[in-house]
Every structure is written in C-alpha cells, then in structure tokens.
Specification:
By secondary structure, this protein is of the alpha/beta class. The chain folds into three domains: 97 residues; 112 residues, no CATH class; 173 residues, Vaccinia Virus protein VP39 (Rossmann fold, 3-Layer(aba) Sandwich), CATH 3.40.50. It is built from 18 helices and 13 strands. The strands form three sheets. It has a seven-stranded mixed beta sheet. It is elongated.
C-alpha cells in the first residue's frame, strides 16, 4: 500500500470518527431525523472500507443490519456509538498492518488473513464458489475431474451435484488454523517460500491458475534445491515412498555422492521395478516396508502396479505389510530423509523423532496430501527440534496446489 492510498483511507476513517462523535452528542428532540442521515452516511463509509480492506462489505465485528435495528432508539445511542467506534478501531489496526507490510507479498498475505479472520464463514464459501463458477465451463470440468480423482485428500468437487466439499474443507481449515498459517508464514526462511504459501492459499479460495504459475519453479528437481540442500559422500539418505527409484535417481544425478541410501516402498511390484532401475548404483538397501510411528502389521491398497498412490488402510482389506518406525529400523546416523507417502507423513515423523532430535537430518517432505500437513508438519518438527528452518517449494503444475515440498533444514 502506498502513502497516498494510506492517507486516503485514513482520511475516510477520520471522517467516520467525526460522524460517530456527532451521534454521541445528539439530543433527543433531533435524534430521529439526524440519526437517519448520519447512519446512512456512516453505513456507506463502513461498507466501502470493509470491502477495500477485507474484500467483503460485511465484517464480523460490525453487523450493520443489527445496528440499524437499534438506531431509532435514543437510549441505544451510546451503545451504538461504541459499536461504531470499535469498528473504526478495528479497521485502523488493519490499515496500519497493511501499510507497514514489507512488500506486496506480505500485504497480500495479511489481507488474506484479515479476510479469514473478520469475514463470516458462509460469505467466504459463497465468494469462493462464485470465483470457481466464473472460471468458464471447460476449466470447471477439469477442476471437477481433478478434485474428484483426489477427493480423499481434499474433498469432493462436483458442481453439477452442488457438491463443494473442497471449498468448505479449505475455508474450515483456514478459519480454525489461521494462527498456524500466520506462524508458518513468519517462520519461512525466504521469500520464495512465502510466495508459495501465499499463492497456495489464494488458489484455495479463487481457483485462479495464475497462482499455480507463480508458485511453480523449474530450476531444480522436486526435492533437491541446491540453494538449500548440499550433499556429499557422507550422506545416509532415507527415501520414504521410493516408488520405482525416481527420487533416488534425481538425487544421484544432482549430487553423485553418498554413503548409503535406504529405499522404503510398500508395493512389491514397485520395489522390483526400482531394483532394476537402480541396479547400477552401489550401497542401496531396499526395504519392502511401510514407515509409521511404531512397529506393527498393517495393510495397504494400490490402484495399479506402477501407481504412485499406494496407501496404508485401516480396514485391513488390502495386502498385509510390515510397518516400522525409522528410530527402530535404522540405527546409524541419518543425514537426509525424503517423504512422499500419500498422507502418512505425520505418522512417519513420529517414528523418527529420535533421529530428528539427536541427528538433525535434513527433511524433504511432501505437504499437500490434505489441508493440514502444510502447517501441522512444521509444527511437529519444531516441537521435536526448534533449531530447524523451514522452506517451501513447488515444482509441479496441477489443476490445484500440489507437489508442494517442505524443506526443513
């Protein structure tokens, strides 16, 4: 926000303050006639500035419809003026936060957080629906196909059936965890990371694909950002969700050096393919196991022999698999852990707490498999070891925010 814009809005708030002061000193005989005029004048300013500063004409700390019901009662004059004053104070705080933001991305993020905080749930959901439905018929079809395919992650989107679970779930996550998103934003270690988080959340509510373009990078492979992840011949690498060895190949092509690599993959057919793909490389150990918080037996389901979506299931309807914790399964010091295990990352983190506390391995973790991992996983890591710094990268292009990786260094 520039100085001229700040001064203009500050001037409007000052005018509103003058009107509020006049309401306080109205005498009873002039009250009804004057109150109608002043309320109309103030209501216009309130709706205009609400929209300008929060994106909605209505904010939760000033319900004009409720106040208008009281305006004709002289005995409500002080209460009414007090409510209007609270509005002015709230908007002044929002204005000051916005003006003193460091740059355009700080300002955009603060505006979004104010929108989430001060605008009613139903209004946010309604505006998100309108934004989606304004994207055009072809795009809407693609969004619906994409989100229905991955409905287990984020919820259903089916405009023909009036199903908007994706939107409701995301607004719920933002409302309930606004402080967690603020915490994460301020903990992120560079502006590239902040842009990823801010763009992701704006896309959540707008479905504007330009935000996907803004957050997507193509400089490095998915996990191995050379500005942050530096590796040498001493590395003991653990790949959770190794699939057919693609991430290991990317690692070796990027760095060329390591001491040992452990590959965990739950689907035997993928392990078989991985062994073929990585046969030329020494010191790789293959473990057909799942990784979780503790040692147990479980089952998994897969949607195909080369599927990337292999998931542990609770109903034991799939193939039996051994589940281990990394703390129990690997004794030696680990220097780097990559995780992409379809929403089981939080459970796996709990099972490598000893390694994280004592050895501080670099953690490269997919955080897009639900609406919670993006903030919850950094919180978990910080609780285990507060010395970690956090970064976000997005190297994929999808119809929604995906392929987002947390780098905890």
């Amino acid at each position: 926000m520039n100085r001229a814009e700040y001064n203009r809005i500050k001037g409007e708030l000052d005018k509103a303050g003058t009107v509020i002061d006049r309401i306080r000193i109205l005498c009873e005989k002039d009250y009804e006639e004057e109150m109608i005029r002043l309320t109309w004048e103030l209501g216009y300013v309130i709706e205009t500035l609400n929209f300008e500063l929060t994106g909605s004409k209505k904010v939760s700390f000033c319900d004009l419809e409720c106040l208008e019901k009281k305006m004709m009662h002289f005995e409500c004059r002080e209460e009414l003026a007090g409510c209007y004053s609270d509005w002015k104070d709230g908007m002044t705080q929002i204005l000051e936060r916005r003006y003193y933001a460091k740059n355009v991305w700080d300002e955009k993020f603060l505006k979004l957080m104010d929108y989430i905080c001060f605008v009613d749930f139903d209004v946010i959901v309604k505006k998100a629906k309108e934004s989606l439905l304004g994207q055009g018929e072809e795009l809407i079809k693609k969004f619906c196909i994409y989100y229905q395919e991955y409905s287990e992650m984020w919820g259903t989107l089916d405009t023909a059936a009036d199903r908007y679970d994706v939107i409701v779930n995301r607004v719920t996550a933002l409302k309930e965890h606004r402080k967690d998103f603020l915490w994460l934003y301020h903990r992120l270690g560079d502006w590239r990371s902040k842009i990823v988080l801010c763009s992701m959340l704006y896309n959540w509510l707008t479905f504007d694909l330009e935000y996907i373009n803004v957050m997507k990078e193509g400089n490095f492979t998915d996990y191995f950002d050379l500005d942050l992840v530096r590796c040498d011949e001493r590395e003991v690498v653990v790949d959770l969700g190794a699939w057919t060895g693609d991430s290991v190949e990317n690692y070796i092509r990027t760095y060329g050096k390591y001491k040992k690599i452990f590959c965990y993959e739950i689907d035997p057919s993928s392990v078989k393919e991985m062994k073929k793909n990585l046969a030329q490389y020494p010191d790789i150990e293959y473990r057909n196991k799942a990784v979780g918080s503790k040692n147990s037996m479980g089952s998994y389901v897969t949607s195909g022999p080369l599927s990337t979506i292999n998931k542990i299931t609770d109903d034991h309807s799939g193939t039996e698999i051994e589940i281990v914790s990394l703390d129990s399964d690997i004794d030696e010091k680990i220097t780097l852990i990559k995780m992409d295990i379809e929403g089981a990352e939080q459970d796996a983190l709990l099972g490598c707490e000893r390694h994280i506390r004592e050895e501080q391995p670099r953690l490269l973790i997919s955080v897009y498999h639900n609406n919670e991992d993006i903030w919850k996983i950094p919180r978990m890591i910080s609780d285990m070891n507060p010395d970690y710094r956090f970064y976000l990268r997005s190297n994929g292009w999808q119809w929604g925010p995906a392929e987002i990786v947390l780098l905890a260094i």
